[in-house]
Design brief:
This protein is mainly alpha-helical. The chain has a single domain, classed as Ribonucleotide Reductase, subunit A, CATH 1.10.620. It has 22 helices and 4 strands.
């Protein structure tokens, strides 16, 4: 009997045996019938075996790798919880950024899981199928770890309790939700470029690195742990997304204009979602690591510039809207926080006017714009609040048909003028915040006329509880919308200075640090 050990397989050989060699070609059904979605977008793939997963991970190595990360992550989460880590953060203003994170980001991580599970079934090639399977598992892991990491705060602070319900209803959450609704209603090639490029490279790169660094800087080891645990996966996801783009472009020259149009579209869609991240970094972190402007220059202009220089050899150009996005870095966070401050009664977290110390930091980080355009605004709000007239807007804003953000953005070359674009489709006028959103609509108007716009739905009476009678004397539409949102007025919302969260945090902190 020959007991001689066989030669140990190399990484590439092992990967091939455990992925590609397990696939088969259908014989009693046509390939196009088994994989019907691979042709309808117009993308031409001639040889699926040309796709190379740069990580060449097999499922056994994947489980071992992720299990080790889980052990480290939950050890940190448990230690943070058992030691009342929530009292170690800078102050309870920071916790409101986590409320926005949980309601806005965690549900779309789960949608990414569903999307990759779906498109993994649609590819004839074994390589991309396996890669999509692993990314689908990554995404549901991210959703789970975020929920576990942030669940401790739900024991002590308001606004976390209805996060899943609110994701489908609250006005500003239609922004990230519509991004994924748009992506999952595309085909498998558009989806993987939308998520692999716009979500992973554009959006999460600016979320999980600078913002999660801010979590660590503000004493939140729970959020820091899940952020850094997820970022190692995000790095793999970004690489996969770029490899898919290169693979598609190498397969047929006819693919180039289709891919370029998707890159243009999804860069702009991802960038508009980043509006929420910009204000989180500049206004919601009591201690800030860097400004939104600095983060954009590092993670978008420098890294993105290198990316597009690399893709130029395939004929890919810098996406439309890139120049405008770079101009808006001086204004984005200020415009966004002004909106949330004004509509602070209709969001399940607290807002506040920046202090004089905060404004000194903002002035230093935005020397060309903050003092000139925004300081007087915040000074006015603070004076009004000091005199007992804290400002809340009681009107409903016009929304952009595509990004679903209120029309708050200014012209790229004139920050004193609101940008406004419009298109006519079947004798109905539609409104947009930018050339980027208008061009997306004009390419597929039949898709975007179906957008679920929160303001429109409120006006149509679709955002009230079922027991409401709008014709009844004393009917209060705002109170009923908040009830439909499951926002407790005066507890989950409004100004931080008057919140139970602030009062409780200061009481508990005093008890924990005093005799």
């Amino acid at each position: 009997m020959d007991m001689k050990a066989s030669k140990k397989l190399g990484l590439k050989e092992r990967y091939t045996l455990m992925t590609r060699d397990l696939a088969w070609t259908p014989t009693y059904q046509a390939v196009k019938d088994v994989f019907p979605l691979t042709e309808y977008e117009g993308i031409k793939i001639h040889d699926w075996d040309k796709f190379e997963d740069p990580f060449r991970m097999t499922m056994d190595s994947y489980w071992k790798y992720q299990a080790e990360k889980e052990r480290k992550l939950y050890a940190i989460i448990d230690a943070f919880t058992q030691n009342n880590g929530h009292l170690g953060v800078t102050d309870a203003r920071y916790i409101n950024a986590l409320k926005l994170f949980l309601t806005g980001i965690t549900p779309v991580e789960y949608m990414a899981h569903r999307g990759f599970a779906h498109i993994g079934r649609q590819y004839p090639g074994a390589g991309p199928r396996v890669a999509c399977l692993m990314q689908s598992l990554d995404e549901i892991r991210h959703a789970q770890t975020q929920i576990h990491s942030l669940s401790n705060y739900n024991k002590y602070y308001n606004g976390f309790q209805n996060w899943r319900h609110q994701h489908d209803r609250v006005w500003y959450l239609s922004v990230p939700k519509s991004f994924f609704d748009d992506a999952v209603s595309g085909g498998p090639f558009e989806y993987i470029i939308a998520i692999g490029f716009a979500f992973e490279y554009v959006l999460t790169n600016l979320l999980f690195v600078p913002f999660i660094s801010g979590a660590a800087y503000n004493g939140d080891m729970g959020a820091m742990a899940f952020g850094f645990s997820a970022q190692s996966d995000e790095s793999r996801h970004m690489t996969l997304g770029l490899e898919v783009i290169k693979f598609i472009l190498e397969q047929d020259p006819a693919n180039l204009p289709i891919v370029q149009a998707w890159i243009d579209k999804w860069f702009w869609r991802g960038y508009r979602v980043l509006t929420l991240v910009a204000m989180m970094m500049d206004y919601m972190l009591p201690k800030r690591v860097m400004s939104w402007k600095e983060a954009w220059e590092i993670y978008a202009e420098q890294n993105g510039g290198a990316l597009f220089a690399d893709l130029a050899r395939y004929g890919i150009k810098v996406p439309k809207g890139w120049e405008q996005a770079c101009k808006e870095k001086d204004h984005l966070s200020h415009l966004a926080w002004n909106t949330f401050y004004s509509y602070g009664m209709a969001a399940p977290f607290h807002t506040w006017a920046p202090s004089e110390k905060d404004m000194e930091w903002l002035s230093a980080k935005y020397p060309d714009t903050f003092d000139k355009y925004y300081r007087s605004l915040w000074t006015h709000y603070a004076r009004e609040q000091a005199e007992g007239r804290r400002y809340y807007s009681t009107t409903l804003p016009m929304l952009c048909q595509i990004c679903q953000i209120p029309m708050i953005f200014t012209e790229p070359d004139d920050p004193t003028k609101i940008a406004y674009r419009e298109s006519d489709y079947k004798n109905i006028k539609y409104h947009f915040c930018s050339d980027g959103c208008k061009s997306i609509f004009d390419l597929e108007p039949g898709k975007y006329v179906q957008s679920w716009l929160p303001v429109h739905q409120i006006h149509q009476g679709n955002c009230f509880p079922s027991d409401v009678d709008p014709g009844k004397p004393g009917f209060n539409p705002l109170a009923e919308v908040l009830r439909w949102y499951r926002i407790s007025d005066g507890i989950d919302n409004r100004d931080y200075a008057d919140s139970p969260d602030k009062q409780n945090f200061e009481t508990w902190r005093t008890q924990a640090t005093g005799n």
